[in-house]
Amino acid sequence: MDDIDRHIINTLQAGFPVCDAPYQQVAMQLGLTEQALIERLQTLLDNGTLTRFGPLYHAELMGGALTLAAVKTPLDRFAEVTEIINAFPEVAHNYARNHALNMWFVIATETPEQIRHTLTAIEQKTGLAVVNMPKINEYFVGLKLEA
Amino acid sequence: MLDARDRQLLEQIQTGLPVCPRPYAEIGTTLAMPEAEVLERLTQLKQQGLIKRMGVIVKHHQLGYRANAMIVWNVPDNLVKQLGRQISQFAFVTLCYQRPRQAEWPYNLFCMIHGKDRETVLMQLEQLKSSCDLARLDHNILFSRRCFKQRGAVYQPKNPTSLTHG
Q: What's the complex ipTM?
């Protein structure tokens, strides 16, 4: 990844136009040719630097639901519990964190009821209490992991 | 709010936009929808907020962001909104939410800092504390030790026929 790639990533994190020739528009802004932008973007996607290039949906407005949940996992069961939780397709992210509540995961479902069902299913399969922390308010942040 | 055509369109692009000179025309070809209609519908979906934004989704690990900290605060209820707005202004804060307190979890304001390393994140935390007068508030910093799973939320349009069992 060189400076031009970094510039592309930083620019495209801010957004992508909806118009007939969007790559041409972005390329002009970056001082690149349309073809160079397309080739570099494809490479960044192919080599895994970028996960995805496309829309970010507002899950709740789509009728879907999200929540953040955590469990206290006994250390000797860590691998087993990780496997159980990650096997749920509703689990979008799962991180180990340094706290008594040591496993934190995000659940994304099509409907709010499915959140409840998933939490219950995780409790049943792991035998652990799941702490549910749905958001009450979201404060706006721009997206800005500078490459 | 969403009609069947919108749903088809959202489903079609959820895995990514085509990387070619006329991406929206290509989507239109797949859906038998004119390019102009694709553009019009996407513009509306953005205006309505259903599409938060178009753009790249980065793997923060790949960009060298190896320290991912969740910082949680126990903030008096009447100050949550004000502090949430203040904290979210900092460029290094990547998410900021109010969440409910729990029995053994007194924290109600959550923010994420993605940093290149722990030292940087800890310095940014100090900056946050002094700028927002947060040092007096009970807080905790939870670094992630490992990412086990990371995927984007996938939109799955409901298919009414799948609800009936003929």
A: 0.75
